[in-house]
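Lab meeting, item 3. Inverse folding demo.
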C-alpha cells in the first residue's frame, strides 16, 4: 500500500493547490444560466476570478457578497441577501451557486439558515431561480473537494427525490474536475455512439468551450440545464468518474435509487476498455467499428511509444484523482514514478497510486523530490521548478495560463491516451541529450590491475584459433 506522507511545513512555498470555493465555482459554471456567488470578501473572489480567466481565456461570471470589516463582525446575512437580489434583478439567472469561503466558515455563520430565510422572505422576487449552497471552506480540502461538494449540493437541492420510472437509454455522467472541455465533449460523443442519451453534470464542454455568443450574456450560456438536474431520478444508470465523485453518485442513489458505477480513470487502455464495455452492457449494442479502430490506433501508439517511456523517472504534482490518472498511465508505459506530490490526504485513491509514497505538499516539495528525474508533470506554476532543475514540464491540471488550448487537450479513452503517448514521447525526444564519452564507457578511467593469469579454457580457445 502506498504511504501517505503528511505536510510538515508551516508555510507553503510555491503553492500547488487551489481552494474549495474555486472548485465549487468551476462546477457551477458547468450549469446553464448559472452565476457562482462566493460568500466572503472581495479579495477571495478576485483571486479565483483571475485564475479562471487566465486558464480559460474567457469572460467568467463570478460574483461576491463583498463582506467588509463590519459584516465580518456583525454577520454576513445582509450581504448575502443583497447580493442574491442584485444578481436576480440584473442577470435573471436560472441558478445561483453560493460557495462559502473561510471567512464565513471560520466565523461559524449559518449560511443554510440564512438562505432558507431569504427564500421565504423573497419568494416572489426569486421565483424561477434555484439557490444552491455548497459549504466549501478554504482551510479544508482543495479544488477536488469543492467540485464534488457543489455537485452533491445541486443533486440534494434540485433533483426530485423518490424512485421514478426510468427512461430507457438515458444515463447520467458525473465527470471529475480533471476532465477537460475536450474530454467531456469526447465522452458525450462516445456515449451517443452506443445509442444512449447522456446527462452530464457538470458540463463545462458547452459553457467553457471558447465559443463567442452573438450578444452579451451575463450568466453561463451553456452547460447542464436545471431541468435536467431536476429530472436526474429518471435516468437508467449513473457513471461517476474519479474517486471524488463517489459521494455525489451515492447521494443520487440515496435520493432517487438510480444505480451507479464508479470508474477511477478513463486514461489508458484498461480504463478505456472498462468504460466501453460498460456502455455496451448498458445499451445492449455491440462496440461500433469506429471505436474498435481507435482502440487499434492506441495499440499501435503503445508499441511505437513505449521505447521512449521505458525506465524514465517521472515527478507528478496534482490533485489526488489526477495524480492517480497520470501515475497509472506512466507506469503502464514502463516509466517509474520517482516523486508524487498532492494537495490533500482526504482521498482514498492515494492508496492506489503506483509509487512507494505520496507527499502532501506544494511545488517546493516537488522541486526537492524531482532532482534527477526526466519529466515534471503539473500545472503552469511548475515552470519555475522546471527552469531551475533543467527538466522539461508537461502541463496538466489547473491553472494552465502560459499555453493556449489547454481545455481542448484530449486525455481520456483511446484517442486521448494515444495523444498523450505522442505528446510525452515527443517531449522526451526533444530533450534528448547526446551521451558523453564517459557515459558511453563507464570503465574508461578504471584502474588497471596486474595482468591476470589466463584460465585453461582461455588458452585452449586462443590456441584453437591460432591453429586454425
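The presenter then showed the designed sequence:
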Amino acid at each position: 500500500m502506498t504511504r501517505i506522507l503528511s505536510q510538515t511545513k508551516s508555510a507553503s512555498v510555491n503553492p500547488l493547490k487551489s481552494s474549495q470555493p474555486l472548485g465549487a465555482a468551476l462546477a457551477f459554471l458547468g450549469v446553464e444560466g448559472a452565476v457562482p456567488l462566493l460568500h466572503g470578501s472581495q479579495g477571495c473572489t478576485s483571486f479565483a476570478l483571475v485564475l479562471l480567466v487566465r486558464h480559460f481565456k474567457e469572460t467568467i461570471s463570478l460574483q461576491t457578497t463583498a463582506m467588509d470589516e463590519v459584516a465580518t463582525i456583525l454577520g454576513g446575512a445582509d450581504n448575502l441577501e443583497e447580493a442574491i437580489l442584485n444578481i436576480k434583478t440584473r442577470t435573471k439567472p436560472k441558478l445561483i451557486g453560493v460557495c462559502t469561503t473561510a471567512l464565513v466558515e471560520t466565523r461559524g455563520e449559518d449560511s443554510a439558515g440564512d438562505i432558507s430565510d431569504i427564500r421565504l422572505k423573497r419568494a416572489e422576487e426569486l421565483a424561477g431561480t434555484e439557490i444552491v449552497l455548497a459549504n466549501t471552506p478554504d482551510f479544508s480540502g482543495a479544488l477536488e473537494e469543492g467540485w464534488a461538494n457543489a455537485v452533491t449540493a445541486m443533486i440534494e437541492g434540485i433533483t426530485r427525490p423518490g424512485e421514478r420510472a426510468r427512461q430507457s437509454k438515458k444515463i447520467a455522467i458525473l465527470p471529475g474536475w480533471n476532465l477537460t472541455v475536450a474530454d467531456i465533449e469526447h465522452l458525450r460523443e462516445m456515449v451517443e455512439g452506443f445509442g444512449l442519451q447522456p446527462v452530464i453534470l457538470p458540463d463545462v464542454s458547452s459553457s467553457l468551450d471558447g465559443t463567442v455568443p452573438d450578444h452579451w450574456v451575463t450568466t453561463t450560456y451553456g452547460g447542464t440545464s436545471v431541468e435536467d438536474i431536476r429530472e436526474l431520478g429518471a435516468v437508467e444508470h449513473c457513471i461517476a468518474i474519479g474517486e471524488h465523485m463517489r459521494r455525489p453518485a451515492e447521494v443520487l442513489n440515496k435520493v432517487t435509487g438510480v444505480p451507479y458505477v464508479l470508474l477511477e480513470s478513463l486514461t489508458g487502455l484498461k480504463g478505456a476498455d472498462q468504460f466501453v464495455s460498460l456502455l455496451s452492457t448498458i445499451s445492449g449494442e455491440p462496440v461500433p467499428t469506429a471505436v474498435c479502430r481507435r482502440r487499434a490506433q492506441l495499440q499501435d501508439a503503445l508499441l511505437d511509444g513505449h521505447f521512449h517511456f521505458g525506465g524514465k523517472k517521472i515527478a507528478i504534482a496534482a490533485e489526488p484523482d489526477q495524480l492517480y490518472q497520470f501515475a497509472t498511465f506512466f507506469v503502464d508505459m514502463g516509466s517509474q514514478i520517482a516523486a508524487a506530490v498532492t494537495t490533500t490526504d482526504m482521498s482514498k485513491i492515494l492508496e492506489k497510486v503506483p509509487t512507494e509514497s505520496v507527499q502532501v505538499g506544494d511545488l517546493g516539495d516537488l522541486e526537492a523530490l524531482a532532482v534527477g528525474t526526466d519529466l515534471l508533470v503539473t500545472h503552469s506554476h511548475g515552470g519555475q521548478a522546471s527552469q531551475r532543475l533543467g527538466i522539461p514540464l508537461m502541463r496538466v491540471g489547473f491553472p494552465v495560463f502560459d499555453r493556449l488550448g489547454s481545455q481542448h487537450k484530449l486525455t481520456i479513452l483511446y484517442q486521448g491516451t494515444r495523444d498523450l503517448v505522442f505528446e510525452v514521447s515527443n517531449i522526451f525526444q526533444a530533450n534528448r541529450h547526446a551521451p558523453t564519452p564517459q557515459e558511453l564507457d563507464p570503465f574508461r578511467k578504471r584502474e588497471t590491475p596486474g595482468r591476470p593469469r589466463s584460465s585453461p579454457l582461455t588458452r585452449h580457445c586462443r590456441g584453437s584459433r591460432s591453429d586454425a
